[in-house]
UniProtKB/TrEMBL annotation:
PANTHER family found in the cross-reference section: HTH-TYPE TRANSCRIPTIONAL REGULATOR, LYSR FAMILY TRANSCRIPTIONAL REGULATOR
Domain of life: Bacteria
Keyword S-adenosyl-L-methionine listed: no
Native species: Pseudomonas fluorescens
InterPro entries xref list: LysR-type_TF_proteobact-type, LysR_HTH_N, LysR_subst-bd, WH-like_DNA-bd_sf, WH_DNA-bd_sf
Name of this chain's protein: LysR family transcriptional regulator
Alphabetical GO biological process terms: DNA-templated transcription
Length: 307
């Protein structure tokens, strides 16, 4: 058991690059984690980390050992967690990351039903539009789109991630009709700045017939959130390129209308992400299956499709 604890200290320290952060996640002191790793090194007869006052890096032997024990450690931990679940039901703290507005609009309303089915699970939900490191930051799952898929993480599609052009009737009134993408260059654009990079991406429009054209809107202003862009467009201040999940409410209410309704931006999918394990924790499996079920039952894939 002492060796198992030392391996856990080693793996956590390697994942986060710090004895102090590993100690915080393991509810130990940094000194205890460092001592445990040192005992493991002495038992193995090799140095696993290169230590300095500012950094903690794996040696070649450390890299090799991490690759051999990491997945097995997670499998054992998940087996223990599943066995310890309340009367065999999924239990424990469920740490999930999701976009702020998307989570509030489409995931939080599902919480009541989820807890009725799985009362022994304690949600720990984080709302952030930036991509998180599932493994290093200790998340069980994340919901979002446009993320790079790191090694050891899998994704299950929830809906397409389409973006559409919208404007208010007030803005469009008195202006020449927009009939093709090239007409956009004469109009004020409300563009989205990536929360990951801080940059405004160069988007490509796709038609229902799979034609392509660059987006030529003039950047009148930029926002980092599609909901804010919708609210700004509703004031008649320009044409916004926004994600469909945020546009559907405004479109249904008639506050905004689509510009070039036969054209959209295909930005991949909105998916639910989780770490790939041979034995997935019961709480994570329950959440993933529940979210996929609910999105399918509510037809959100169809609602969020621009075609």
């Amino acid at each position: 058991m002492e060796t198992f604890s030392s391996i856990e200290c080693f793996v956590r320290s390697a994942e986060v690059g710090s004895f102090a952060e590993a100690a915080r996640r393991l509810s130990l002191t940094p000194a205890a984690v460092g001592k445990s790793v040192a005992k493991l090194e002495a038992r193995l007869g090799v140095r696993l980390f290169q230590r300095s006052t500012r950094s903690l890096t794996l040696t070649e032997a450390g890299h090799r050992f991490l690759g051999e024990v990491s997945s097995s450690l997670h499998t054992i931990q998940n087996a223990v967690a599943n066995l310890a679940s309340a009367e065999g039901r999924p239990a424990g703290t469920l740490k999930v990351s999701m976009g702020t507005v998307f989570g509030r609009l489409y995931v939080v309303p599902l919480l009541g039903e989820f807890l009725r089915r799985f009362p022994a699970i304690n949600p720990d939900w984080h709302f952030d539009n930036r991509q998180v490191d599932l493994i290093a930051q200790g998340f069980d799952a994340a919901i979002g789109g446009g993320f790079e898929l790191p090694q050891g993480v899998v994704a299950r599609k929830l809906t397409p991630a389409h973006r559409v052009l919208v404007a208010s009737a007030e803005y469009l009134a008195g202006r020449e009709a927009i009939v093709e993408p090239d007409d956009l260059k004469y109009h004020d654009g409300i563009l989205i700045r990536s929360p990951q990079t801080g940059r405004v991406r160069s988007w490509q429009l796709t038609s229902r017939t799979q034609q392509h054209s660059p987006l030529t809107l003039k950047a009148r202003m930029t926002m980092s959130d599609s909901e804010a862009a919708c609210a700004t467009a509703a004031q008649g201040l320009g044409i916004a390129l926004v994600s469909m999940p945020f546009a559907v409410g405004y479109l249904a209410a008639g506050t905004l209308q689509r510009v070039l309704p036969d054209w959209y931006v295909d930005d991949g999918n909105i998916s639910i992400y989780y770490a790939e394990h041979k034995l997935l924790p019961g709480k994570t499996r329950a959440f993933v299956d529940f979210i996929i079920e609910q999105f399918a039952e509510q037809g959100l894939g169809q609602r969020f499709s621009a075609v």
